[in-house]
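#struct-pred
JK: can someone run the complex with D-ribose? inputs below
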Amino acid sequence: MIAIGSDHAGYEYKEQLKKLLDEMGKSYQDFGTNSPDSVDYPDIARLVSKAVVSEKFIRGILICGTGIGMSIVANKHKGIRAAVCESVASAKLSREHNDANILCIGARTIEWEKASEIIKMFLSTPFSGGERHMCRIQKIHSLTNL
Ligand code: RB5
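RT: done, structure tokens with the ligand placed:
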């Protein structure tokens, strides 16, 4: 199950994301927003981050104008490793090296076609594992206070 959310800037992409996930046969829960009316991205990032921390959701996808605000908020949560990806290569490495569990997309910075390729890569790439990467991830979380 994938937790998804956006602010107003990412609302249209989120609607497209739902179609993409349906096509991919992936189940998801939409944590809003539910219209193009202005909302505050921290509120949505908080909901999706809590959902992923709960482990009821294996991954999260957050969309705002740049992906940056969403990632800043998401990364305040213990257990969250959120990555803003503007390339397919970044999406692949965020999974392989960082075991990123939330993907942040910027609806104002990349075209939907590219975003959809990034999302597909993020959802299909496993963590490469290994002591080197595990050790670094443990160090990330030893620095987290929330
Ligand atoms: C909203 O205007 C915009 O600031 C937001 O979507 C996001 O880009 C913040 O990081």
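RT: quick notes.
The two ends are 24 Å apart (CA to CA).
Helices lie at 11-24, 41-53, 68-74, 88-96, 112-124, 131-142.
JK: thanks, will look after standup
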